Amino acid sequence: MSSAQLEIQLIASLVAIACAIPGTFLVLRKMAMISDAISHSILPGIVIGFFITQDLNSPVLILLAALTGIITVVLVEYIQKTGLVKEDTAIGLVFPALFSIGVILIAKNANDIHLDVDAVLLGELAFAPFDRLLVSGVDLGPKSLWIIGTILLITITLLIAFFKELKVSTFDAGLASALGFSPMVIHYGLMTVSSVTTVGAFDAVGAILVVALMIAPAASAYLITNNLKRMLAYAICFGVISAVSGYWLAHWLDASIAGSITSVLGILFLTIYLFAPNKGIIAILYREKQQRTEVSLLTFLLHLKNHTDETERHVNHLNEHINWQKVRSKTVLDLALKNNMIRIENKIVSLTEKGNDFTTQAIDYIITNEDSQIEGMKDDFFLFRG
Amino acid sequence: MLGSFAVLRKQSLLGDAISHAALPGIAIAFLITGAKDTNTLLLGALISGLVGTFWIQGIISKTHLKSDTALGLILSLFFGFGMLLLTYIQKQPNANQAGLDKYLFGQAATLVESDVWLMSIVTGICLLVLLLFWKEFKILLFDADYTKTLGFNTKFIDILITTFIVLAIVLGLQTVGVVLMSAMLLAPAAAARQWTNSLSMMVFLAAIFGAFSGVFGTAISASQNNLSTGPVIVIVAGIFVLISFVFSPGRGLLFKQIRFIKNRRDLKLHKTLAFMYHIAKTHEDISHPHTIKILNNFQGYTKGTLQKLVDKRYVKLESGNWSLTNEGYKTAANLYNQQSENNE
Lengths: 386, 344
Prior knowledge:
The complex is a heterodimer. Helix content of chain A is 73%, strand content 4%. By secondary structure, chain A is mainly alpha-helical. The longest helix of chain A is centred in the N-terminal third of the chain and has 26 residues, at 3-28. Chain B has two domains: 2-184, Orthogonal Bundle (ABC transporter involved in vitamin B12 uptake, BtuC); 254-343, Arc Repressor Mutant, subunit A (Orthogonal Bundle), CATH 1.10.10. In chain B, helix 1 packs across helix 9, helix 1 packs across helix 11 (199-223) and helix 3 (38-62) packs across helix 9 (154-176). At the A-B interface, helix 2, helix 4, helix 5, helix 10 and helix 12 of A face helix 2, helix 3, helix 4, helix 10 and helix 12 of B.
């Protein structure tokens, strides 16, 4: 592993961490699409900055780009506040307009320079190590490493300093303002951080990857845990893992690094989406099936309780009466038998003591809707768990 | 046109997501066929756009992730994957690969006659389906539960709308490119929404706005050097939206402001009138003249409001004295009654 490779991976990992932190909050605040909007609309900021400084590497560029990002947020909010359109429409209107302005500016005035839409949107991580920071002739490492490192440091400092405020205002804006933090300040602070991170990172990895790195790790982490601190930690881990493995994938395929990091993120998310213990698709489907069976069981038991007549309780009769398929009735019967709730004698089904109690309790719960009634049943049945 | 549905269904950003999600489809279609045939590429884009859309819906309905997260996620992941494939293709020894990235940013100038035909045909089909299923679309849009109880197959209609939105986006990609497609979908519809509350009117207006911004945008970009078509079209559409926001009669900002000011004036007028009424009530003769000076320490009073009251014949002015007319007295009394009624 050469030093250039190491540096690329280092930059990618730092970007991943820097994106994961604001990304987590964006996802929690339902503002994920804002990051997409910011990443597109910083283009005119960069272009204007370039006209002023005539230098692609000046810090003014980053400043202006971040400013455009904040302008985007303000514009979106203003449009939304007029009540004429919904928030998502507002986002969808603002950023293409800004992006178009950027593209037109480039096309009109900057045709001959190295400022190309592809470069902004897609970025090229592979070249990052060649752009080195030289301070009085001493090579201090790649420039983007320094930029993203600084941004990360600021982000982490802010995160630690304002963790409590962020947490409260994210989950309960009302409480936050009652406690005297201004949600507005925190909101715009977060937006500024996201904006700066996007700008700092796009240079290295491109706008699309920034969006992917902000949202995907946070979304994956959100599927696994409900704890904010853990979610942050998971998001950072996922980001770094996919940054490093994405690099090697790109190395192996000889393709775009940004693209392959995103693809790894995608695979990661898909896996978690399918297999996450509580919120994955498979777990949810299983739970839904379980709940359906249990609802059937309850219906079945109620039916038994209501009918004392033997013909009504005959196994064959149940099939037609409750209108279930054969397989389904069998599952329900088996489940009931296993739990000792029914007895079958000569194909006549009757409730046992336990089944009778259970049904009574269930009816009580359905009628009163009081949680205390079912405390004891929660362990045995999915149905009564939330 | 279809954008109207997207806007009303609060799926505005879907267009953005789909246009990004179409990229891997294009790349995969190219990888499989090895040829740059528009139809196959579009088919690939359509399929991957649909996959993206349904995955988004799956995420929203099955997990606790919100729609914005799902959109952003799918958008960036698909696009990244598409980029990976594109760069991978670029390394392949295949002369045909050049120009695939044109799909990214769009180039109306590269369209050939057959593409235009394809577009017209698809637009025709869209129109036809829209007319056929108009009632179903409309009802699903505004009251999905009701539609279900009426026995319509909501899933089918839903898929139908989504498919056509995806189709429209994929076709538009060639013209304006990935980034600007969402604006093309949204802007005309958002502009049209400001002018009308009726769905058919809105769809119609959106189509007109869209067509106009297309024509103007192309004209402007053709008249100048170095202007790519897509961004100009989007800017023109954006200007349409801005104008609609400001000037539309029912919902526009300008008229809202005017209404606001007018209401405030009316309120002032009422206040002054009520004040006068209270003074006049204490006298037996309601038209007994009072000096204007009494009104001076009253807040709602200005010379303008007084003049207006005179114009309305509620008040008579005689050499620095005012007096309520019969009509004015009655109105003021009713005003008071109305207020107390409202309070109860």
